[in-house]
Structures are given as structure tokens and as C-alpha cells.
Design brief:
By secondary structure, the chain is mostly beta strands. The protein contains three helices and 31 strands.
């Protein structure tokens, strides 16, 4: 979306003011740190060499011009306030995700480590650690490239960690490639309310949600490793947002060991994700899951659910929101052990009652909610159904959420079908 001229003017004025204030602040700070030299006068402005690295970098970001490449050399740099970029066409480049480290452990100001509100930019080869809030947030941007970036909360999984590691929201044409996300209290890699997204070749571990695609149209998630999260890969539609998502492909991923107990803030949607969930689809349509390796996910390898099974169930939702997952196509995946030790008391009791102490849930679990107004003979219409193909041993457990788990059933024949494959996402970068 092109920013109106009045907004661009306002942003430029704000950036100029911020630049002036930053130079003044740097002058003040240097004068108050016990330096023997007098503070520079108006006739002798502060030079870059005299400013601390934090102030230098923020000044470069504020004064950048389209086409600029801002290089950050190897080293660990401490920041007390968040950084921001609002200029189109800029590249921020470090020396490597384990070489250039931006540490926000002592952050006092700002809700993010780095906030970007610009188009046509690249961020690559650096790490953002211990941000007070989200590590890297991108808001309302087109043509986004995030490459070889690590976000991490170094103290391990904690509820007071920032919510999101890599966090593009309301973007278009977004590439996330070869990144690492560790320790987010919501999602390590999150893309929300966006269009045309590719997440590939990345690793998410020890987050509540490893990789999450939420309210997004046309996303490809492939060749990633999601390990030791509460939930591995989530494809969600949440209510009361400006856009509902559809058409997500999840393929060639390793999704395993999703057994980290949730450390999300109580009451949030993702606090309801059971530990040990591999791939979770919630209230989303036209999702294709194929050619993945799933193993050691203690609740289930794949969960299909509605908003009625989340902490949002009792909240008012906008008129027209579709809470039902539909047109789900699961095929050609490979499964290791899983489903033997589900999270939550309800699921534990259900597993024990149906499969015994040493048994396991089937590979796919469904909460059982469907749109009764669209039902045909008590089941989903063929074009809306869940289809499981080329997986002869895969069964689906309908836990009967609408009936309070009163009449669960294991089903196979009803879901032995195929949907047309979704087309690949093509980025206009």
C-alpha cells in the first residue's frame, strides 16, 4: 500500500525532529559521563566518533536514503532503547547471525528491538537478543526480505520473554529465509494479516509457537525445522482482524519434539495450544500439508480445530467471521511415534479411555466442530471436507468437542479423498 503524501510528509518531519533530538541527547549524555572535555558548542556539533554506537546506528537509520546499505560489523552491541527504520529501499547488513549481535537485555525504552515501517528493504546477517517486547517487527510494508537473522531470548523459555521473534504484520511479498527464532512467548516466526509470504530454510525452537501463519492469504512454509516448541507450525484465523486467511502450503518440514510446556501469557489464544502439537490448523481454509516428517509430538502430529477450542471461544467475534476449518488436504507425510502422552486433563482422559495406558492417538485429531448449515447427510460437503491421501495408515480422531467429548470416534473412510493441489506462492521481489 502506497503511503499518502501527507503521511510521508509527517513521517519525514518526525524523522528530522528525531534526528535533531538524538544529536542533542548524545551531546547531553557524553557531557554527563565524566569526560574531561567540555561538551561541544553549537558551533562544534557532535561528530559520529564522539557518539556512542547506539546513537550512531539510530542516527544512520533516521537519516538513511533509499538505496543505502547500513553495515554493522562483528561484535556485541548493547542498546537501552529500541531502533526504528522508516525509509524505503534500505539494507541493514551484519557480519553474520552469530557475529553481529544487537543485545537489548538492558532496554529501557521501546516496545521492540527493531521496528521497520518501510518498503523494499532487506535485513540480513545479524542477531537480535533479549528484546523487551518483540524482537523484529515489520508493520505495513511491501517487498520484505529477512535473511539469516536470529532472534533469541537467551534466558530460555519464560512468560516475560517478548511475544514475537520475527514479526511481519500487514505486509505483502515477504520472504523469511534461513532465520533462527528461539524463546518467544508467543511465536518465534509469525506472519499476520499479510499476502504472498514464503518462510523457508529456517529453524524455530523453544517458542510457544514455532512458526505461525495467521490471517494470511497465500503462504508457503517449507524446508524448515520446528523443534522443542509447544506447537510446531500453526495456521490460524483469529476473529476481529481486518482479514481472514486462506491458501497455505506446509511442506518438506521437520516437525518434532513439540513438547515444551506452554509459557504463553494466560488467557491468550496460544495459551490453549496443547504441548506436543505438531501442525495445528485453526479456523483456516484451503490448507495443504504434505511431504513433512513428524515425530515425537506427544499430543498429536496434526490438529484441526475451530475457534471454539481456543481461549477465544467465549469472546464476541465480528459478524461474518468463519470459525470452521474447511478444505484441508493432508497427503504424503511421514510419521514417527506420537500421540502417546497428550497435554490437558481432558485429552489424557480421552486417550486412556479409548486407547489404554500404552496406546496413542491417531496422527490427526479434529475437534469436531463444523458448519451444520453447509452439512450434507450429517457430514461436510465434498469441497469443504478434510482429505487424507497416500497415507494408508493415517486415521482421524473426532473428539466430539460440540458434545463435550461425549461421543468421540476414529474415522478413516469419510476422509479418504483428494483436493486439487494449491499453486506455489510467487513473490514479486
Amino acid at each position: 500500500m502506497t503511503m499518502p503524501a501527507n503521511q510521508r510528509c509527517t513521517r519525514n518531519i518526525r524523522a528530522s525532529a528525531q534526528s535533531i533530538l538524538l544529536v542533542f541527547a548524545a551531546t547531553f549524555l557524553l557531557g554527563g559521563c565524566g569526560k574531561s572535555a567540555e561538551a561541544p558548542s553549537a558551533e562544534a556539533p557532535v561528530t559520529a566518533a564522539e557518539m556512542d554506537f547506539e546513537s550512531q546506528l539510530q542516527l544512520k537509520l533516521l537519516e538513511a536514503k533509499p538505496g543505502d546499505v547500513i553495515e554493522i560489523p562483528s561484535g556485541t552491541y548493547s542498546f537501552s532503547r529500541g531502533l526504528s527504520l522508516a525509509v524505503d529501499g534500505v539494507t541493514i547488513r551484519g557480519a553474520g547471525m552469530d557475529a553481529t549481535i544487537l543485545s537489548f537485555k538492558d532496554q529501557l525504552v521501546g516496545a521492540e528491538g527493531l521496528l521497520v515501517t518501510a518498503n523494499d528493504f532487506v535485513i540480513e546477517d545479524l542477531a537480535i537478543e533479549d528484546a523487551k517486547g518483540d524482537a523484529l517487527k515489520i508493520n505495513e510494508a511491501k517487498n520484505v526480505v529477512i535473511r539469516r537473522v536470529r532472534t533469541e531470548w537467551t534466558g530460555g523459555p519464560k512468560t516475560d520473554n517478548g511475544a514475537y521473534g520475527i514479526y511481519p504484520v500487514q505486509t505483502e511479498n515477504t520472504l523469511i529465509d534461513e532465520v533462527v527464532a528461539i524463546g518467544a512467548s508467543d511465536a518465534g516466526i509469525y506472519v499476520g494479516q499479510s499476502k504472498n509470504v514464503v518462510v523457508r530454510n529456517s529453524r524455530a525452537e523453544y517458542n510457544v509457537a514455532g512458526i505461525e501463519i495467521e490471517n494470511t492469504l497465500d503462504a508457503d512454509v517449507f524446508d524448515n525445522i520446528a523443534v522443542n516448541n509447544t506447537g510446531g507450525i500453526l495456521v490460524f484465523n483469529m476473529p476481529n482482524l481486518p482479514q481472514e486467511g486462506a491458501r497455505t502450503r506446509v511442506f518438506r518440514n521437520q516437525v518434532r519434539d513439540k513438547n515444551t510446556a506452554t509459557f504463553a501469557a494466560p488467557g491468550g489464544a496460544f495459551a490453549s495450544v496443547p504441548a506436543g502439537s505438531g501442525i495445528v490448523i485453526n479456523s483456516n481454509d484451503a490448507v495443504e500439508i504434505f511431504d513433512n516428517d513428524l515425530s515425537d509430538n506427544d499430543t498429536a502430529h496434526i490438529i484441526i480445530s475451530s475457534v471454539f477450542s481456543t481461549n477465544y471461544a467465549a469472546r464476541e467475534t465480528a459478524a461474518g467471521f468463519d470459525p470452521y476449518p474447511e478444505t484441508i488436504f493432508i497427503h504424503d507425510n511421514r510419521y514417527g511415534p506420537g500421540g502417546g502422552s497428550p497435554d490437558t486433563l481432558e485429552l489424557k482422559a480421552l486417550k486412556l479411555a479409548m486407547f489404554g495406558l500404552t496406546g496413542s492417538f491417531p496422527h490427526v485429531i479434529w475437534d469436531g466442530f463444523m458448519n451444520e448449515e453447509k452439512a450434507i447427510d450429517g457430514g461436510m460437503a465434498p469441497e469443504l471436507n478434510f482429505c487424507i491421501a497416500n497415507e494408508p495408515e493415517t486415521e482421524l480422531l473426532n473428539v466430539d468437542g460440540p458434545g463435550g467429548y461425549g461421543n468421540p470416534s476414529v474415522e478413516k473412510a469419510a476422509f479418504d479423498c483428494r483436493h486439487a493441489a494449491l499453486p506455489p506462492v510467487v513473490l514479486a521481489l
